[in-house]
Each structure stands twice: as C-alpha cells, then as structure tokens.
Amino acid sequence: MELSVLLLLALLTGLLLLLARGHLKAYGCLPPGPRPLPFLGNLLQMDRSGLLKSFLRFQEKYGDVFTVYLGPRPVVMLCGIKAIREALVDQAETFSGRGKIAILEAVFQEYGVVFANGERWKTLRRFSLATMRDFGMGKWSMEKRIQEEAQCLVEELRKTQGALQDPTLFFHSMTTNVICSIVCGKRFGYRDPELLRLLDLFYQSFALISSFSSQVFELFHSFLKYFPGTHRQVYKNLQEITRFIDRVVEKHRETLDPSSPRDFIDAYLIRMDKEKADPRSEFHQRNLIYTALSLIFAGTETTSTTLRYGFLLLLKYPHITERIHKEIDQVIGPHRLPSLDDRAKMPYTDAVIHEIQRFGDLLPIGVPHMVTKDTSFRGYIIPKGTEVFPILHSALNDPHYFEKPEVFNPDRFLDANGALKKNEAFIPFSVGKRSCLGEGIARMELFLFFITILQNFSVASPVAPEDIDLTPRESGVGKVPPVYQISFLAHGGC
Ligand code: HEM
C-alpha cells in the first residue's frame, strides 16, 4: 500500500478515535448500554428484524434503563412500567419534550401539537384539548356522533351482502369521519373519491413509517436524506394531505362567522385573528395546518389499525366472539343503539377490547420524548435535549403484570367476580403530560364501533382459525396487522 494511503488511514483512524472520545465524554453520565462506534453508533449490535427486538435484547443485558446510539445520537430507553412512570409521571415536566421521528422531521419541523416543544406545545395542547372538548370530546354529543357514524358503517357493511372484504377502508372511513367532523366540520361519504385518496395516503404513510427502511433511516437520516427512499414518499404523501388541509382552511376563511365557530379550524382562525398583532403568537397558519394534520393522522390511523387487529383476533378466536355476542344479546338486544352506559354492564367485551389493545401493541417503541433540562434519573445524568423512548411494548408485555403475555387472553382483565380488573401496566396511550390527547375519543370509538358491528353482524374468514396468521405486516414505530379478508354476515342469518 502506498505511503500516502497509509498516512490517510492513520489520520482517519486517529480522527475517529478522537471524535469517539469527545462523543463519549459529552454523554459520559448516561445510563449504560452497548458500546457505540463513532457515527455508526450501535448499528453493528442491532438485530436484523428491527429496533424493538434489539432494544428488548439490550434490556436483558443492561436492565430497564439503558442508552442506545441510533447512529450518532444517544437515546435513553425506558422499559417496564416502573421506569416509564418514574420518568413520564414523577418527573413529568422534565420528560415532556418531544423527540424526533426522523422520517417525519422534514414534514413537521416541530410545528403542530404532536411535534412541537416548549411554550408552542403547551399552547397548542391546551388549545386543542379545550377546543375538542367544546366540539364534543368527552360529552354526550361526541357519543351521538360516533353512534351515527357506526350506523353509517352498518349500512355500508349490509351492502356487501356477506362478500369477503379487506376491512381497512371501512374502518379508516369511520375513524376519519369522526375526527374530520371535529376538526373540519366535515364527514365524507364512504365512496367519496377525496376521502378514498386521503385514506390511501394515510394508510400507505403509516405502513412506510413503520417499515424496516424507516428504521434504518432513523439511524442515518442526516446522510440518507440526500438519497431517494421511503422518506421521500412519506414526505410527498404528507405534503398532499397538507395541501388538502390548506384548501379546507381557505374555504373556512371565506365562510367564517366569528360569532359562531363551527369546528376546530374556525375556533383556531378566530384565535389567530385575535392575536394577529402579537408577533410571538403561536396561532399562525403553519401551526394550524400541522396541528390539523396531526389530529387527523393520529385520529384516523390509530383507532382504525386497532379495529383491524381486533377483528383479525376475533376471527382467530371464535369462542371469544361468541361470548361478546352473548353479552350484547343480554345487555343491549338487537334493536336499541349501543351506548357508552352499556360499557359498565359489559365487562367481558370491555376486557376483550383491553386485550386487543395490549396484544395489538400499536406503538411498540412509543413516540419519542426528550428531556427539557439536564436531568438526574436513577443515578445517571441525562443531558438536556437527549431523546428518550418509552418502550410501551415492554410494559404491555411484562410477564410480571401479564402472565404469558404472548397469549391473547381477555380473561386476564377480569377478576374472580367477572368484573373488569385494572392493570397498572396497561398503557397503550402512554402516560404523563404528553400522553395521547385523543384517548377519550379513541376509547369511545373502540367500544361503540366494536359492539355496533357485532350487534349487527357475525364475522367469518376464508381461513380456518388455526391457520390465521397474526404476524404483523410491519413492526417499527407502529405495528401494522397483516392484510386479511373478512365477511360480515347479518347477525343470526345470511
Ligand atoms: C387506539 C387509539 C390510539 C392510541 C393507542 C394512541 C396512542 C398514542 C400514544 C402512545 C401517544 C404518544 C404519547 C407520548 O408521547 O408518550 C399518542 C399521542 C397523541 N395522540 Fe393518540 N392514540 C390513539 C388515538 C388517538 C386519537 C383518536 C387522536 C385524535 C383525536 C389522537 C391524538 C394524539 C395526539 C394529538 C398526540 C400527541 C400528544 C402530544 O404530543 O401532546 N390519538 N397517542
């Protein structure tokens, strides 16, 4: 080898070692973890099947709190309900920062309620919660809206006359309609081409965000962002949705009556106008568009994916479906509309929904957090700005709280008297100041949609229950169930 090449190699090695020392020193008080390489971080120690598997393996070796270098950036992982609560609840303010999901960074750029930080986030979260409450969240009118949407779905499912369907579009349409009616005052017909396009964009994007290539992008985004790949498609999809929201906002502006806001967008425009003289106001167009996008995306994909996993599980375990049908027959009967008051009288159905959420494990590695200041935690010092992943999967699958967590068993949520039994490790909506803003709506939707569908239909699969495969299609930021076919047969006949 030529001398100049040797010199260059020696120089590079020296530089890497120097950088590594500086790098490690800067984060010297972080919790332990696998030893990182400069730039590559812990790439070489990662499991090929993805981030979650790698994190669970590290948990076995380093305990519930450890540090993993995703490429060059250190991320503190919190496993198990105790560590997650100690951080997100006991030190709620400090752990309330939002970390990044690399593949979404170029789109949101810290605007909108999900990805904002600091005062911007506090303002948007407070406003979103209050306004969604004004437009029905947590109130009787929200229940009515969901009941009506469930009836629209029943009508659509009747039209299928028991033919096999991929249920994705039905569930998506229903959940989008609920959130869009709050945000934009609009519900779509199930065959509206605008709706179908939106839903396709949501569905494709969630699958792409949860794909293996997105996990690789998470590690090396500062380099990979210059090349073609999944991130460009996600960007394109979300930009198209953003343009749709832009048009909706413009229409709202043209028809706004400040004395009578119709929905979330109207309420925001009124506030924007009130604060237009304040240059520091967070009520500007960009935050409006990205908050609306966050609410519609988070509000559609999550509940719909849970329903999709839920019905796949019901096909796999027909004896469980039968018990729900019995409970519906006893408590509601075939004619009356299901209501939220029924929940207290239907502990078995409620337990099944809990178990679907636990087993479905929608956001296995949680949504990234970030510490807002230098933080002392379990004897370590986590520097301000360090990202923190609450690994929700580790709580939902902790064998100390859920015996044989790999088994789908709704009875684990029932006590000896058949009443619903709470479990502190059941945290599909996360905990603390950043916990899911739509939990109230989601819980209403899951209950009312499940029982309204099962009040009207029995379900059947072309695949024998024992052959139904529950393996997710994608498992990354989100866990996406496999594609499957189902038929909805008029209950008691067809
Ligand atoms: C089954 C349904 C759902 C599940 C499992 C779920 C779960 C979650 C989780 C785990 C987070 C992250 C919490 C954290 O950062 O620690 C989150 C955040 C969020 N969710 Fe949901 N969610 C669901 C439905 C919804 C719905 C229907 C909406 C809209 C109405 C919604 C809106 C949001 C928003 C806006 C945030 C960000 C909150 C913030 O950063 O302050 N979610 N959700």
Strand order of the largest sheet: 1-2-7-4-3
According to CATH, the fold-level topology is Cytochrome p450
CATH C-level class is Mainly Alpha
Can you summarize the main beta sheet? Answer: 5 strands, mixed
Task: Tell me the helix content.
Answer: 40-55%
Identify low-pLDDT runs. 1-26
Compressed to H and E, one letter per element, the order equals: HHEEHEHHHHHHHHHHHEEEEHHEEEE
CATH architecture grouping: Orthogonal Bundle
Ions, cofactors and other bound molecules? protoporphyrin IX containing FE
What is the number of domains?
Answer: 1
Gross geometry: globular
- The CATH superfamily turns out to be Cytochrome P450
Main location: endoplasmic reticulum
EC number: 1.14.14.1
GO molecular function, one term: arachidonate epoxygenase activity
Protein name: Cytochrome P450
Describe the structure.
This protein is α+β, with helices and mostly antiparallel strands and 494 residues long. It has one domain (25-490): Cytochrome P450 (Cytochrome p450, Orthogonal Bundle). The protein is 52% helix and 8% strand. It has 16 helices and eleven strands. The chain has a five-stranded mixed beta sheet with strand order 1-2-7-4-3. The chain has a two-stranded antiparallel sheet with strand order 5-6. Strands 8-11 form a two-stranded antiparallel sheet. Helix 6 (140-159) runs parallel beside helix 16 (439-456). The longest helix has 32 residues, at 285-316. The chain is globular. Protoporphyrin IX containing FE (HEM) binds next to helix 12 and helix 16. It catalyses: an organic molecule + reduced [NADPH--hemoprotein reductase] + O2 = an alcohol + oxidized [NADPH--hemoprotein reductase] + H2O + H(+). Pfam families: p450 (PF00067).
